[in-house]
């Protein structure tokens, strides 16, 4: 079978309208897509998703794709929010689709791959070659792992500082958690380190080694004493505030644009509506290259219906387990099919869940045809 970003996007939208939330497609005025899984250098994934609006006759839906590594989904979200807050808003709803297929060459990184599609803010955007995909004939990225970790940490610092500066100007206090994937525990500890730099006399920092106080910023990015000290200090807070959110990236692997929002789904699924009321949730979103933001929102109103519709645990339990060799062969199948035309994909659609869209044909002009698993 051949998974593609628009397949995932179609399924994501169908899950949320009209059947489960009873939303009339005519009430949708904007559809934003964040993805780095590029199928066409010109035609957007959003335009493919417009097939879902055909029956309703609604073609007046603004928005296209946003691309910047794992950050595209966040920028798509900001676009949708800004539209609702603007004079251009016509009163209709906005949908954001953030999804990708994370695929790596055979080796240590391959098991981390995956696929998925599920306030105030401070941003940090600069130029860096930490992770990029310059070869359009291949789906695999070029990754500078150590440099990427440093870029990520610098982005945490800059976004958190910008967020706190703006928050101070607005005279509002945040107490949320940063949801993410991979480096999330270290980034959460890094935020506590930034709090320490702002107020080292706070009693909670009484046992922080004295030499950390005047340490050069550049050195702090790789200093193991800094890392260990604040990982230890943040351990209990991490378990209470962040651990409930990392179930999806832990169980499903990297989802690029969808990772941070999969974490949000996990938070809504694992923390009761009562416990979430009035709480502020902080989200740090990072995309290599690089673009990043730290933003937050406050929970108001019941989240019970979201919990019910997400149905997270049942979805995780329904996954099919295969041997690593089978997954390798699936990846090899994708590699052989990449950029092919006049092609019918191999694979058994009987392994798919009912209602799943799957590719049946790519014609000699690269036009794609899909079917729905009954």
Keywords:
EC 2.3.3.10, 2 domains, single chain, Peroxisomal Thiolase, Chain A, domain 1, 13 strands, 374 residues, alpha/beta, 4-stranded mixed beta sheet, HMG_CoA_synthase_euk
**What share of the residues does DSSP label as strand, in percent?**
15-25%
Report the order of strands and helices: HEHEHEEEEEEHEHHHHHHHEEHHHEE
CATH homolog superfamily of the largest domain: Thiolase/Chalcone synthase
Please tell me the CATH architecture of the largest domain by its name. 3-Layer(aba) Sandwich
* Helix percent band: 25-40%
CA-based shape: globular
How are the strands of the largest sheet arranged? 6-11-10-9
Largest sheet: 4 strands, mixed
The Rg value, from CA coordinates, equals 21 Å
Number of strands: 13
Catalytic activity: acetoacetyl-CoA + acetyl-CoA + H2O = (3S)-3-hydroxy-3-methylglutaryl-CoA + CoA + H(+)
Keywords: Transferase
Domain Hydroxymethylglutaryl-coenzyme A synthase C-terminal: 120-373
Function: Catalyzes the condensation of acetyl-CoA with acetoacetyl-CoA to form HMG-CoA.
Give an account of the 3D structure.
Helices cover 38% and strands 16% of the residues. The chain is of the alpha/beta class and 374 residues long. It folds into two domains: 1-98 and 340-374, no CATH class; 122-322, Thiolase/Chalcone synthase (Peroxisomal Thiolase, Chain A, domain 1, 3-Layer(aba) Sandwich), CATH 3.40.47. The strands form five sheets. A four-stranded mixed β-sheet has the order 6-11-10-9. The longest helix has 25 residues, at 145-169. It is globular, with a radius of gyration of 21 Å. It starts with a helix and ends with a strand. Residues 171-182 have low confidence and may be disordered.
